Amino acid sequence: MQTPESILIIKMSAIGDVVHTLPFLEILRENFPKARIDWLVEEEASQIIEGHPALDRVIVSRRKQWQRGILKGGTCRRVMRETSEFLKEVRARRYDLVLDLQGLFRSGLLTGISRGRRKIGMTGAREGAWIFLNERPVPVDHNEHAIDRYLRMARYLDCRIGPCKAIIPVFESDRERVRELLGPEVREDRPLVALNPVARWETKLWLPDRFAVLADRLARDLSCTVVFTGSAHDRETIELISGMMESRPLNLAGRTGLKELAFLYSLCSLLVTTDTGPMHIAAAMGCPVVALFGPTAPWRTGPYGNEHRIVRMEMDCSPCLRKRCDEPACMQQITVEMVLDAAKKILENDASAVEQAGRAAE
User: Fold this and answer.
1) Which listed residue, 66, 165, 272, 347, has the most CB atoms within 10 A of its CB?
2) Are the beta carbons of 130 and 141 closer than 8 angstroms?
3) pLDDT in tens, 184-227
4) Main-chain phi, psi angles of 122, to 5 degrees
């Protein structure tokens, strides 16, 4: 294959999917060090890649904001102007490679609009996204992890696959903000453990009272400092959980951007979470994860790496990929003891690693 001089990655959302694409980005940069690499992403997930050293430009789509603007009176002209400017930016450069890793109509349409010599995607694209490609889709297995699927694309491009860090770039201002939020809560003699209890699908949710008991057990039995994370929309749910607790945790829901959240997780010994974007941010930042899975498949979209633990009930109906269920037994049958046991194993390994490092330094 001729060495590409310019590459456009189209991976627009969601947060976890964008994190999964970071190893692919780093492999492209390693194999094509002189190439210009741009990334087209939606606004919600754009913080994940802004400032990444492997990227030359981030093109941000404000699709959801534009959709809301069209529904409001008096803003259609502004939306039309911003959309026109965005499309001009997409077409501003002719790329050797345009890579549609999203595989949906909206990404396919932008693939078609972009100016690219080769337009490549993967098998399994939905909503007719494949019609915008000019090469046959790269064969992938959608029953394997998303990261491994993207590595198949890298191999198709004749890339050498070596180790990569999949970093989320964090600025000093993000570090300072997190230290300010944590204040005196962080102590060297107490592991910092984050809990992220909310997910967008109601079928992914665990019972609030069990999160409350788990948080108290982590604080009391394992001497952990517990901090809750989530979006501003999650704050009410986390306050409900906190109200059921004997101790008072730190609630940072809605108080961190994605980069700040990434740095926070880098400080944590453990994250306990439902299947949601922050789970992948933590894994990328080297934070071990205990992930609670029900309607979705951890082998496809779980935290990537061997240091994490999945808590999941083996049920005939799981994974069903349903967003609604009258009797979500797959999540309700997960007990506090099951989650606490997984957390203990990770924290014990972490303490052992710290002790070994200390002895090695002596």
Assistant:
1) 272
2) no
3) 767 778 999 999 999 999 999 999 999 999 999 999 999 999 99
4) -120, 160
Tokens 């910092």 appear where? Answer: 192
| Contact status, residue 51 vs residue 77, Cβ threshold 8 Å | no
**Alpha helices, DSSP H, located in 21-134:** 22-31, 63-71, 76-90, 105-113
CATH code reported for the domain at 173-361: 3.40.50.2000
Per the CB < 8 A criterion, the answer to whether 19 and 48 are in contact is: yes
pLDDT band at 164 (very low <50, low <70, confident <90, very high): confident
Q: Is the pLDDT of residue 355 over 80?
A: no
97 CB burial (10 A radius; 0-12, 13-18, 19+): buried
Q: What backbone torsions phi and psi does residue 68 show, to the nearest 5 degrees?
A: -65, -35
Cα distances from 273 to residues 16, 51, 290, 302, 357, in angstroms, run: 13, 27, 6, 11, 28
Count of all residues that appear for the chain in the document: 362
Strand 94-100 relative to strand 57-61, pairing:
unpaired
Q: Which amino acid is at 112?
A: G
* Neighbouring C-beta atoms of residue 208, cutoff 10 Å: 17
Q: Residue 285 and residue 277: Cα distance in Å, rounded?
A: 13
Statement: residue 356 has pLDDT above 50: no
In words, the CATH class of domain 6-156 is alpha beta
Q: Which residue has the higher pLDDT, 357 or 3?
A: 3
Look-up of token digits 């930042």:
285
pTM of the prediction? 0.91
Q: Across all residues in the chain, what is the average pLDDT?
A: 92
Q: With cut-offs at 50, 70 and 90, classify the pLDDT of residue 351.
A: low
Q: Residue 41 is encoded by which pair of tokens? A: 């992403």
- Sequence spans of domains, the chain: 6-156, 173-361
Percent of the chain with pLDDT over 90: 84
- What Rg, from alpha-carbon coordinates, does the chain have? 22
What is the phi-psi region of residue 288: left when phi exceeds 0, alpha when psi lies from -120 to 50, beta otherwise?
beta
Cα 357 from Cα 362, distance rounded (Å) = 9
Q: Supply the pLDDT for residue 219.
A: 95
- 60, 44, 64, 108: which is closest to 277 by C-alpha? 44
